[in-house]
Amino acid sequence: MPQLLSEKNRIAIAFACVYFAWGSTYGAIEIAGRYFAPPLVGALRSILSTVLMCAICVARGTSLRVARDAAWRLALVGVLFMTVNNVMLIWGETKVASGLASLVIAMIPILVALMETALPGGERLNARGWFGTLLGVVGMVALLWPTLHRAAGGGDRTGLVGFAILTGAALAFAVGSVLSRRFHFKVDTFVATTWQIGAAGLCNLGLATAAGSFYTAHWTREGAVAIVYLSTIGSVVGLTAFTYLLKHVAVTKVATYAFVNPVIAVLIGVATLHERLAGPEVVGMVLILCAVALVILSRTRQASTDPMQEFPIEE
After folding, report:
1. Tens-digit pLDDT profile for residues 111-160
2. DSSP label at 84?
3. In terms of pTM, does the model score above 0.85?
4. Is 185 contained in some domain?
5. Whole-number percent of the chain with pLDDT over 90
6. C-alpha count within 13 angstroms, C-beta hemisphere, residue 195
7. Domain encompassing residue 224
């Protein structure tokens, strides 16, 4: 039976899902964090997402069984994605505004590029890709500048702690991205995502129970809606698309979502919360979009065991 969409179209749709799904979740994370402790947000989100993913696999007639070596690797990547990264992100957003948090997470492509460059056989960006990465950093600074200026005037150290937490979250996701690519999972995308979220859900539940998060929770309709949104759009749609991309696209290109997410997060804030954008923030968004185009359109190189024999990865 012929496929309805070509691989290029599926990749384009997956990029769109990752860009919007994760760009729109920062606000939902901030809302959920008002009523639930970070480990409990992570636990509720992951458990609900796991149930939904299992239902999808059953409906598709797909077995959830995987080989033992694949199981622990999927679990490791899932914990990095949805426990270390996600819980730290939620924690960070209790100290830093959601738009600002999205900008700190935008460091992921730079971290991924550095890891890939340092690792044997890692992917190498060409000149255009590196220029796009640097342009993205400049755009991120421009987008961040007004907020940093206001924070510096107040001398509040809470923001600095938030930055440190969010940096740890970005590092965890970068490590997970590189590992996922190098593990070469030969597992159905839905099955892989289910294992990842399920493993993280168990870890998050353990953390929430140990921290007594259930006793401090405030069960409200707004908080529940935020959790459901994070579970369906943020986890099921976003992580499934992300897992698909990691199997079909160079990891340094997949990581460009972190440049787009802040722009989407800010625009959603303007549209729904009537937030006002300063001039440098507008400039930053434009620079970030240009940077994304440069990195995505650049050709990466896969370093072989012989550094003199390199070949471009097909786009």
Report:
1. 787 788 778 877 777 777 788 878 888 887 887 777 666 666 665 567 66
2. I
3. no
4. yes
5. 29
6. 23
7. 7-312
Cα–Cα distance for residue pair 73/303, rounded to 1 Å: 23
Q: Is residue 70 part of a domain?
A: yes
Q: Which amino acid is at 249?
A: V
**Contact yes or no for 174/108 (Cβ under 8 A):** yes
pLDDT at 100 over 90: no
The answer to whether 197 and 50 are in contact (CB under 8 A) is yes
The residue written with tokens 């600002």 in the block is: 100
- In order of 64, 70, 72, 176, 178, the CA distances from 183 in angstroms are 18, 8, 11, 10, 9
Q: How many domains does the chain have?
A: 1
Residue 2 lies in a domain: no
> Taking all residues of the chain, what is their mean pLDDT, rounded to a whole number?
81
User: Cα–Cα distances in Å, from 235 out to 186, 241, 283?
Assistant: 21, 10, 30
| 40: amino acid identity, one letter | L
Closest CA to 16 of 192, 228, 241: 241
Question: Hey, what are 156's tokens?
Answer: 């509040």
- Give domain status of residue 243, yes or no: yes
Length of the chain: 315
In whole angstroms, what is the distance from residue 177 CA to residue 123 CA?
13
